């Protein structure tokens, strides 16, 4: 199926936006903290045309599902909420949005922690910007996308995913200060590459666990008398907090420190150690890992050629990311998946080898 077959006319314009993987800095973006994502080769394409009726029509090729928006005062559920949300935030920003036909097609796996949701939002906003020649820049696109996800899809997300999809490329990591939106384009240590493996375990509990962690962080910040946990750099300060707030805050503070250490320039060994420490912190202090992710990370960590590995994304299932020696990712993935899947899991490679460094 294509646009023409679904909507009986050709598309007027189209735009694409990538998924992302986060190398370091997990659960920090809603604490005004620091993150290190990169774009991945998988992306989402949105095609647009004007609708001749007074109704929006959205079609997802991935879901083979079409939704007609009959009443714009009623937010749709499911995938349509992301697209509808993007159109609504543009309206609220003062732009007049006509009735549209929207066709979505994506190679970003949904719900695996590679941010298919941000890719959908950013591609939608880019396509509308192009169609209507709107004067909005890439940072504004990310901010509008985040508003759409929070207010229409009902996910209380930070700004990382949308900033990564809107501003990152697949050749660099993007250091982002989520408070000031200051950013820096960087490379990984020389002679390394990145591997992403799906644990095969769906992210059940992800939204409830996510909202609970968010609330715990806000409470911890309040108790410590700061605007956000980003304002604390010494993890010892958390000792006055009751459990589990103490450990939740300690994760965020140490995780921010790990990202800032990378900013100073680190070796591949050190970057790997920081990823391993991030996983331990997410597992023990933040408690967002599950046995499958721990198993996969341990298998990765003990495989020669791997500098470090951690769960990536919100946790409770989803994917793991590893920093490995250049040229080794495919061999490592095959070796690790053989053992992992023998243990009864259903893992698979999501991104085989992402080159984000110079060869030495
Ligand atoms: P992630 O962003 O990590 O992939 P989310 O749960 O945040 O996971 O977002 C996944 C949701 O985004 C899907 O359930 C669906 O509603 C929507 N979505 C993303 N990409 C598409 C697509 N190509 N077609 C339809 N819906 C999509
Ligand atoms: Mg998402």
Automatic annotation (TrEMBL):
Gene3D superfamilies membership: 3.30.230.10, GHMP kinase, C-terminal domain
Record bears the keyword Nucleotide-binding: yes
Domain called Galactokinase N-terminal: residue spans: 2-47
UniProtKB keywords: ATP-binding, Carbohydrate metabolism, Galactose metabolism, Kinase, Nucleotide-binding, Transferase
Signal peptide: none
InterPro entries: Galactokinase (IPR000705), GalKase_N (IPR019539), GHMP_kinase_C_dom (IPR013750), GHMP_kinase_C_sf (IPR036554), GHMP_kinase_N_dom (IPR006204), GHMP_knse_ATP-bd_CS (IPR006203), Mevalonate/galactokinase (IPR006206), Ribosomal_Su5_D2-typ_SF (IPR020568)
Class of this enzyme: transferase
Domain GHMP kinase N-terminal positions: 82-167
Domain of life: Bacteria
UniProt GO MF annotations: galactokinase activity
Residues that span the membrane, as ranges: none
Enzyme Commission number(s): 2.7.1.6
Record-annotated GHMP kinase C-terminal domain positions: 269-341
Family recorded in the similarity comment: Belongs to the GHMP kinase family. GalK subfamily.
Protein name, entry field: Galactokinase
Native organism taxonomy: Bacteria, Bacillati, Cyanobacteriota, Cyanophyceae, Nostocales
């Amino acid at each position: 199926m294509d646009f023409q077959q679904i909507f009986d006319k050709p598309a007027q314009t189209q735009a694409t936006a990538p998924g992302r993987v986060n190398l370091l800095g997990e659960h920090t973006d809603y604490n005004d903290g620091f993150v290190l994502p990169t774009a991945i080769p998988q992306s989402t394409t949105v095609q647009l045309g004007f609708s001749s009726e007074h109704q929006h029509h959205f079609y997802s090729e991935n879901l083979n599902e079409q939704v007609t928006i009959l009443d714009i005062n009623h937010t749709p559920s499911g995938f349509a909420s992301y697209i509808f949300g993007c159109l609504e935030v543009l309206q609220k920003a003062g732009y007049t949005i006509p009735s549209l036909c929207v066709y979505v097609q994506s190679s970003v796996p949904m719900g695996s922690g590679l941010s298919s949701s941000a890719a959908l939002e950013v591609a939608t906003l880019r396509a509308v910007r192009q169609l209507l020649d709107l004067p909005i820049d890439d940072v504004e696109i990310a901010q509008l996308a985040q508003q759409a996800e929070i207010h229409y899809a009902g996910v209380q997300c930070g700004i990382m995913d949308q900033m990564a999809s809107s501003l990152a490329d697949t050749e660099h990591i993007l250091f982002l200060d989520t408070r000031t939106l200051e950013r820096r384009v960087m490379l990984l240590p020389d002679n390394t590459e990145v591997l992403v493996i799906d644990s095969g375990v769906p992210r059940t509990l992800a939204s409830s666990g996510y909202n609970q962690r968010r609330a715990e962080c806000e409470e911890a910040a309040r108790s410590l008398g700061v605007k956000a946990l980003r304002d604390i750099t010494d993890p010892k300060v958390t000792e006055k907090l009751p459990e589990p707030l103490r450990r939740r805050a300690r994760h965020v503070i140490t995780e921010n420190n790990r990202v800032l250490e990378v900013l100073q320039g680190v070796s591949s060994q050190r970057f790997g150690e920081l990823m391993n420490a991030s996983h331990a912190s997410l597992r023990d202090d933040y408690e967002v890992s599950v046995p499958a992710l721990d198993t996969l990370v341990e298998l990765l960590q003990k495989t020669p050629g791997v500098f470090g590995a951690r769960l990536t994304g919100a946790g409770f299932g989803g994917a793991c990311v590893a920093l490995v020696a250049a040229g080794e990712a495919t061999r490592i993935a095959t070796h690790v998946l053989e053992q992992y899947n023998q243990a009864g899991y259903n893992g698979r490679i999501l991104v085989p080898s992402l080159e984000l460094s110079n060869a030495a």
